[in-house]
Amino acid sequence: MDAYALLLGSTLTAGTILALAALGLLINEKAGIVNLGAEGMMLCAAIAGFATVVHSGSTWLGFVAGMAAGAALALVFGWLVIWLNTNQYATGLALSLFGVGFSAFVGINYVQAKMPASPKYGIPVLEDLPVVGKALFTLHPLVYATMVLAAVMVYFLYRTRAGLVLRSVGESPASAHALGYPVRRIRLMAVVFGGALCGLAGAFISVVYTPLWVENMVSGRGWIALALTTFATWRPARVLLGAYLFGGVTMLQFHLQATGVQVASQLLSMLPYVATIVVLAIMSRNPTWIRVNMPASLGKPFYPGS
């Protein structure tokens, strides 16, 4: 029972990384912007957050530093694709490659660095419940905050005027511009917010999930988060569920190893990526479903003067 409780808790923690990044990318795409630079932003945020905690001793300052790093890179990306109208896909790939190299360069001196011991978290009374106490009520507060964030985003997108404006910008920026909405500024704010969430996800990896710095430690999670937005058909609640599904697949490899299942570790490590490919392949069989849910202007540049 304890093993399954540990697997459940680990699944929620691992899924939080994907959920944060995917929710940020979802906001980007709801505004019509595709950002393929999530991997690079998460890596830069991971080293920014880790270095901040090493020098300050504050986990929460590490999260702020990670969000700032992600938002800063997203701001540059947004300026290039929204104001200079560079190709969104090429610029995102360039950002991802930049993040991989820059984080490796900055992180050289932090490979052997140690963070202060992190405190133990738990919800009084509930954490003492049998089985579910350890699985559900001893997790990092950010795990619970991510669940709340998904609910808030559902309300924002579908129950508020600001959410309606954001979605209208993603559906028809020309119409939104004709009605007097500052399409470029709205898109830039969405991109920066999405970058901050990707940065928070990156900082969570290096500060909480695996409290150390290793080159390229994000290990493709930025790409999985990008695929997750499509898998969830751009719905925050589905993003959250999908993130936990992929998180469970990720943690299953460690659970199988711990229970003595004789499978090559390399094959187990492939599970999250194989699951991503399988899900996308299944979804591609019904392109109409994706087209109906996808923002109409996704990936398309907007020229206010035209």
Automatic annotation (TrEMBL):
It is a multi-pass membrane protein. Keywords: Cell membrane, Membrane, Sugar transport, Transmembrane, Transmembrane helix, Transport. It comes from the Bacteria. Pfam families: BPD_transp_2. It is found in: Cell membrane. InterPro entries: ABC_transp_permease. The chain crosses the membrane at residues 6-26, 33-54, 60-82, 89-111, 131-158, 188-212, 241-258, 264-284. PANTHER family: ABC TRANSPORTER PERMEASE PROTEIN, SUGAR ABC TRANSPORTER INTEGRAL MEMBRANE PROTEIN-RELATED. This is Simple sugar transport system permease protein.
